[in-house]
Amino acid sequence: MTAKRKPALVDGLIPFAVAAAVLGGGWQLLSWAVHSPALPPPLPAVWSFFTAFRHGMATHLAVSTMRVLLSIGWAFVLGVPLGLWLGRQPALDRLLAPLLYILYPLPKVAFLPVVIIILGVGDLSKVFLIGIIVFFQILVSARDAARAVPSQLVDSVRSLGASEWDIYRHVIIPGSLPDIFTALRISVGTAVSVLFLTETFVTERGIGYYLIDAWSRLAYKDLFGGIIGMGLLGLVLYVILDFVETSACPWRHL
Amino acid sequence: MQPNDAETNAMIRVHDLSVVYRQEDRPVAALDRVSFELDRGDSLCIIGPSGCGKTTLMYVLAGLLAPTAGSVEVGGQDPRRGRAATSLILQDYGLLPWKRVWDNVALGLQLRHYPPDEVARRTRTVLETMGLWEFRRAFPAALSGGQRQRVAIARSLATAPDVLLMDEPFSALDALTRENMQDLVRQIWQHDGLTMVLVTHSIEEAVFLGRHILVMSPRPGRPVAFIDNPEMTMDAYRQHPVFHQRCSAVRQLFYEQNGHTRAQAG
Ligand SMILES: Nc1ncnc2c1ncn2[C@@H]1O[C@H](COP(=O)(O)OP(=O)(O)OP(=O)(O)O)[C@@H](O)[C@H]1O
Ligand SMILES: [Mg+2]
Hints:
The complex is a heterodimer.
Chain A: H1 9-34, H2 42-87, H3 90-103, H4 112-119, H5 123-148, H6 151-159, H7 164-199, H8 207-216, H9 220-248
Chain B: E1 10-23, E2 26-39, E3 43-47, H1 54-61, E4 69-74, E5 86-89, H2 101-111, H3 116-129, H4 145-158, E6 163-167, H5 175-192, E7 195-199, H6 203-209, E8 212-216, E9 223-228, H7 241-265
Parallel strand pairs in B: 3-7, 3-8, 5-6, 6-7
Antiparallel strand pairs in B: 1-2, 1-4, 8-9
Bound molecules: adenosine-5'-triphosphate (ATP) and magnesium ion (MG).
Residues 21, 23, 28, 30, 50-56, 219 of chain B line the site of adenosine-5'-triphosphate.
């Protein structure tokens, strides 16, 4: 419990340095090999990221971040309680399983045109579409996690006089937390990919739009500057998630 | 303890208890007309082949499972109504991995809505008596098997129960730790005047901790023998010739039953 794994700041930064070196090195080699304006070397791209960041890309990134957070947010708020509850209602779960398994793998992106007709071209349709995809991932993970909590833990806490809500609070929720964090990590990846797609349609804001715009102008340095921005968006979200997970699940990090 | 006898001092009364599980619409009989009574402050050890319904019986006594037929009373009431003074320790401890020792032990008190300062006071007392105070901030995963078992016992004692139900509490421990824990439980039982029911696979454990020993048949479990063991309160009972005689007697009965098991399984 104590005297174990308390990384100093420097130790914590080493993995990021490794990531930068591997990605930068690989990128550099590849751009030498391809030798085309379509794949600029990393340093000019990083440079263009910083200049673009000061000239408008920051707003695009902020808009995109907000869309991702709102989408994951509503999916989480609905998906986790519903999933945990389903996991403890075997009869209802059996009833709803086919419905869930039809809806879950369905490529919801294909419904983008319909969603746009119903919800408009604004943020609402994007947040809805990203959220609904992530929602099913979170729902299914939360349900499976709740199901996997050993029944003996439930029984022993019940024998201490626990109500149904106590069981959720002391057993089901903490027992499912690690899996829910895994689901969230996967969701971040999914959300960022879907975000890109939704932002290539009728919009003029967001990092996806920024990329497509750079592409259509054949501004490859801007394009890769934008890709760096999108990568950083994912990185920041993952780092935040890891940090929250470590403080929320201390028993997993003995 | 007497089979089928209406005594006034009985803390636990089990009459013609049968439990049938439904598994994919196929009935699985786990217990078949089990009857016994156990006096207040008495102790009963239950041994029987694997799958004969011992855990099922503990679940019924703890009120976690309804009998299919028959009746059960603990402290004069139906355990299904939730009896605060019954404590249950399950086969694999049932400690919550995500709670520190202190929180695990305090949980029973919190769930029963004791005021916070009372929770703190009682938790501290029981942790200190069990020699666990210095581990109060540890997670169960960071403890040895013996320490974890102490925590499980501490948690069930924190609410000051009068009935203690234990399902193979020491099966995961090494021989020495196991004897230590048996000594501890016997001390607590004598000191606190608990009524104790303990399920075990170990004949020595049954003879050391049970003033009465109930031998069960293979599934569906029926009582096939009740053995009185009044000498178990003697000091250094493990070294006493009576202890060894009793172990042999129980072993003989037990293996008559195991013969049945093999015949049925084979
Ligand atoms: N939830 C359940 N659903 C269906 N059958 C069950 C259930 N729980 C137990 N059983 C069956 O009931 C019988 C008795 O189970 P129980 O766990 O009470 O046995 P046990 O005596 O405690 O065994 P062991 O010594 O191995 O712990 C077993 O045959 C088991 O398969
Ligand atoms: Mg059992």
